[in-house]
């Protein structure tokens, strides 16, 4: 099973930063999850919200800021505000890290929030440049992005994200040619996991921080769990 450090080890470190990704790997995660947006000057950056305000000491939309402007921002968490590893990372920096470790990287395209022009092409170009195709799983809440990625690079795995019930979700994911479904924890059942597997779809569930649900999902045959606490999930995975 893949233990995805959700936005890195974001329960203890500033989310979506190089520090959080490195700490996720140290904690034993065999997967990392991150969110991608595009800057004003067309660079791919790793940040969850379209607005910098929640995580950095500044205001503004990622799409209206240049990479240099974003890199100058200070992290909101006081304890980490002086750390160079707590600035907005570029996707390239994370790919460089991932290339050195045997981990799966889930790249979430935030195109449900802002329909960034040709972001699928840009992300796949970088994945190919770093030759990390086999380590990547691209996901999105936007079905058009899943379809587009499969058109450009059918050999890169994709996962369809959803947070509310969808009729016939397995058939729908298959129609997108997705390799996995990524449901919110509240939408998962053992029957869904079984049906997905019968249809050659993997099931990766978000965001699971409770040991009770971690154990239930492992027993139900989950293929991956996204957690803010990868060390905790790692301990539970190591239980008999
Ligand atoms: O990919 C799982 C999860 O990250 C989706 O929700 O809001 O944390 O990006 P969110
Ligand atoms: Ca995400």
TrEMBL record:
Q: List the Gene Ontology MF annotations in alphabetical order.
A: phosphoric diester hydrolase activity
Organism classification, top ranks? Bacteria, Bacillati, Bacillota, Erysipelotrichia, Erysipelotrichales
Could you tell me which CDD domains the record lists for this protein?
A: GDPD_TtGDE_like (cd08563)
Per the UniProt record, the source organism is Turicibacter bilis
- The GP-PDE domain is annotated at 1-237
Q: By what name is this protein known?
A: Glycerophosphodiester phosphodiesterase
* Database matches in InterPro entries: GP_PDE_dom, PLC-like_Pdiesterase_TIM-brl
Question: Any signal peptide, and if so, which residues?
Answer: none
**Transmembrane portions of the chain:** none
């Amino acid at each position: 099973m893949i233990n995805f450090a959700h936005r890195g080890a974001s329960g203890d470190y500033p989310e979506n930063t190089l520090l959080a990704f490195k700490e996720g790997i140290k904690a034993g995660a065999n997967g990392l999850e991150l969110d991608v947006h595009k800057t004003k000057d067309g660079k791919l950056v790793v940040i969850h919200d379209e607005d910098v305000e929640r995580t950095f000491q500044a205001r503004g939309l990622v799409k209206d800021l240049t990479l240099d402007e974003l890199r100058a921002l200070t992290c909101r968490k006081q304890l980490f505000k002086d750390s160079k590893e707590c600035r907005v990372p570029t996707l390239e920096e994370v790919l460089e890290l991932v290339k050195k470790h045997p981990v799966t990287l889930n790249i979430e395209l935030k195109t449900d929030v802002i329909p960034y022009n040709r972001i699928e092409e840009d992300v796949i170009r970088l994945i190919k440049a770093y030759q990390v195709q086999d380590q990547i799983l691209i996901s999105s809440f936007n079905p058009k992005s899943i379809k587009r990625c499969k058109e450009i690079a059918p050999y890169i795995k994709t996962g369809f994200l959803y947070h509310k019930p969808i009729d016939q979700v397995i058939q729908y994911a298959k129609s997108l040619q997705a390799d996995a479904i990524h449901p919110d924890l509240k939408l998962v059942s053992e029957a869904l996991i079984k049906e997905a597997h019968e249809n050659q779809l993997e099931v990766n569930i978000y965001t699971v921080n409770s040991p009770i649900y971690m154990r239930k999902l492992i027993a139900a045959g989950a293929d991956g769990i996204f957690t803010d606490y990868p060390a905790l999930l790692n301990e539970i995975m190591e239980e008999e």
